[in-house]
């Protein structure tokens, strides 16, 4: 293959090619950027020839052949450059908080508020009435106070950051007492014990994996104890021979000791009581605050149904210390997050009808009848328009996802689809590679579409994707 190296044109010759000019016009890319891409692709081809890895079995001994090969690669690279990495996906898995697919999706009013704030200047750190500099902490603190009943609140970029800030600011070089059964690992291999170590707090484990008693905490508290930490294990469930200490008992215990803080990491952060619908056992934030917790923290993009954020609520004195800590600036969120979170929290204050406009709540609380109606509509349109598919409706279960309510199974109705010549794996891949991408489940050699997480507006795209599949 090395004999072909002499036929590779130099970059300055590629710049004079008609193909170069065509790409400049077609993709509106700068000449400098296009030149750099030409150089990269030229280097790549040269390396392939040196390694005898050129894909074409019959390369020509002329420069025009290589110019065409180079520009074919250049155009693919420029086309990829002009496309965004983040793409719209239709989630037909039925998992409401799908971590791989971005967890909670925002509702229309939330999106409208984000767009309005992002496309204009805003009072992010400006007091309009006074004409003075303001604090971004003030933007939604009042809303969090109202929905949680807390004295004060602040927002950081996610709940892991909230845990870290609280431990660093309030328990550095001090002891933090935690039940051994609550030393959880969350997504991405982040462990509570590791976060605590990074924060400078000293971990004091009490109890065992399955059983921790109040006396375990009592014996562990010393003059060096700064905090009792309770971690809500929302991403797994220990069943059988178990025992744990309730929050109210830990509140009573910490009140017997001056300068000991009781902090509960709630993880998911529930503002709506799903238990009244028989769904899960997640504690409502307001109830934990009412019990007397000094601090709580929770995620914004899980069961709350908002953007990625870590929300800290609790006693004013402690929140003020957190706001003044240097890490507060490092972990702060931007105007778009504040806008999405503000619109989400407003919905909780307006009442249940407004809450049901939050996609996460709406999807979790959907009835089987609503889901079946959407699945039936899909089945009818698919069978009528394309005889190469078979589709049946089957009873199944959806998941909440996002590391929350692991034991909860939401009854649903799925469309089980098979193709006359494609396997379920092949069909799922074709759907995943369509535009927009459609992510499904597979079971018993069928592709399952769970319409709990599919909107009416997305039905037409799914039907079109099935119709466009060519064997």
Automatic annotation (TrEMBL):
Q: What is its main location?
A: cytoplasm
Q: Which GO terms describe its cellular component?
A: cytoplasm
Pfam families, alphabetized: SelA
Query: Where N6-(pyridoxal phosphate)lysine occurs, residue numbers?
Result: 302
NCBIfam families of this UniProt entry? selA
One biological process GO term for this chain? selenocysteine incorporation
Broad EC category: transferase
Q: Please give the cofactor(s) recorded in the UniProt entry for this protein.
A: pyridoxal 5'-phosphate
State where the protein is found: Cytoplasm
Q: What is its EC number?
A: 2.9.1.1
Q: Which UniProt keywords apply?
A: Cytoplasm, Protein biosynthesis, Pyridoxal phosphate, Selenium, Transferase
Q: What is this protein called?
A: L-seryl-tRNA(Sec) selenium transferase
**What family is this protein classified in?**
Belongs to the SelA family.
Q: Which GO terms describe its molecular function?
A: L-seryl-tRNA(Sec) selenium transferase activity
Q: Which Gene3D superfamilies match?
A: 3.90.1150.180, Type I PLP-dependent aspartate aminotransferase-like (Major domain)
What does it catalyze?
Answer: L-seryl-tRNA(Sec) + selenophosphate + H(+) = L-selenocysteinyl-tRNA(Sec) + phosphate
Could you tell me which species this protein originates from?
Schinkia azotoformans MEV2011
State the function annotated in the UniProt record. Answer: Converts seryl-tRNA(Sec) to selenocysteinyl-tRNA(Sec) required for selenoprotein biosynthesis.
What is the name of the gene encoding this protein? Answer: selA
Pathway field of the UniProt record reads:
Aminoacyl-tRNA biosynthesis; selenocysteinyl-tRNA(Sec) biosynthesis; selenocysteinyl-tRNA(Sec) from L-seryl-tRNA(Sec) (bacterial route): step 1/1
């Amino acid at each position: 293959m090395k004999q072909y190296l002499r036929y590779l044109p130099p970059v300055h010759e590629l710049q004079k090619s008609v193909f170069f000019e065509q790409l400049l016009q077609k993709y509106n890319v700068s000449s400098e950027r296009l030149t750099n891409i030409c150089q990269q692709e030229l280097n790549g081809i040269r390396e392939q020839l040196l390694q005898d890895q050129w894909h074409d079995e019959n390369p020509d001994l002329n420069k025009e052949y290589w110019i065409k090969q180079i520009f074919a690669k250049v155009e693919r690279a420029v086309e990829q450059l002009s496309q965004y990495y983040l793409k719209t996906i239709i989630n037909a898995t039925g998992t409401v908080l799908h971590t791989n697919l971005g967890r909670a999706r925002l509702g229309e009013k939330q999106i409208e508020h984000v767009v309005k704030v992002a496309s204009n200047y805003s009072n992010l750190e400006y007091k309009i009435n006074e004409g003075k500099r303001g604090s971004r902490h003030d933007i939604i603190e009042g809303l969090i106070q109202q929905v949680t009943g807390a004295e004060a609140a602040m927002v950081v970029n996610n709940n892991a950051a909230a845990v870290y800030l609280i431990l660093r600011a309030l328990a550095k070089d001090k002891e933090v007492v935690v039940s051994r059964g609550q030393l959880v690992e969350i997504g991405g291999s982040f462990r509570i014990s590791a976060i605590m170590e990074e924060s400078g707090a000293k971990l004091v484990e009490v109890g065992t994996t399955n059983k921790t008693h109040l006396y375990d905490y009592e014996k562990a508290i010393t003059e060096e104890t700064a905090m009792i930490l309770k971690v809500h294990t929302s991403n797994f469930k220990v069943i059988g021979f178990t025992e744990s200490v309730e929050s109210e008992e830990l509140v009573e215990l910490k009140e017997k000791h001056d300068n000991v803080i009781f902090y509960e990491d709630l993880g998911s952060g529930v503002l709506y009581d799903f238990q009244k619908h028989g769904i899960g056992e997640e504690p409502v934030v307001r109830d934990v605050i009412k019990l007397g917790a000094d601090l709580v923290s929770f995620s914004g993009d899980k069961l709350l149904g908002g953007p990625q954020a870590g929300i800290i609520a609790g006693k004013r004195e402690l929140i003020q210390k957190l706001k003044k800590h240097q890490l507060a600036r490092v972990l702060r969120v931007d105007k778009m997050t504040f806008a999405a979170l503000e619109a989400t929290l407003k919905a909780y204050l307006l009442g249940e009808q407004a809450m049901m406009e939050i996609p996460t709540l709406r999807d979790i609380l959907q009835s089987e009848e609503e889901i079946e109606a959407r699945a039936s509509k899909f089945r009818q349109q698919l069978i009528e328009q394309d005889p190469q598919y078979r589709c049946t409706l089957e009873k199944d279960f959806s998941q909440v996802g996002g590391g929350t309510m692991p034991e909860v199974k939401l009854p649903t109705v799925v469309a089980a689809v098979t193709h006359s010549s494609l396997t379920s794996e092949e069909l799922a891949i074709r759907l995943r590679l369509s535009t927009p991408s459609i992510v499904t489940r597979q079971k018993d050699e069928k592709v399952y579409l769970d319409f709990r997480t599919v909107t009416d507006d997305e039905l037409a795209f799914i039907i079109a994707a099935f119709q466009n599949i060519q064997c």
